[in-house]
Amino acid sequence: MKYCKLTILYVPCCFIFALLVQAWMPAVSQAQEPDWYPYVLARGNDRAVIKNTHINDRPYRPLHFYGNAVRRSHYRGNPAPMPKDLVRASTVRLRRR
Fold first, then answer.
1. pLDDT by residue for the chain (97 residues), tens digit each?
2. Rounded Cα gap, residues 16 and 93, in angstroms
3. What is the pTM of this model?
C-alpha cells in the first residue's frame, strides 16, 4: 500500500487540531453549569449550604470525584472531565480557613 506524504502528516495534524478546539470551546449546554468552589474543604456556613443544595446544583469542588462526575453527566451528558476542567481544578487554591 502506498501512502502520500501529505496524508501521513494531514491525519495527525487534524486530530491534534480537533483536540485543541475541543479543549478551548465552551461546553454547549442548556443550563448554566455551577462554577468551581475555591476550597477543597467547606467549613461552617458554606458546608451547611452545600449539604442542603441538590447535588446537581452544588459547585464543582477539587478532589470530589463522585459529585463532579454526577454534575458533568447531568449538564454535559458525559462524566469524563474535559482538559479545561483539569486546568481549572489545578488552579483552585488549597488553603485552610
1. 555 555 566 667 767 777 666 666 655 544 577 888 877 888 888 889 989 999 999 888 888 889 889 998 888 888 888 888 877 777 765 544 4
2. 30
3. 0.55
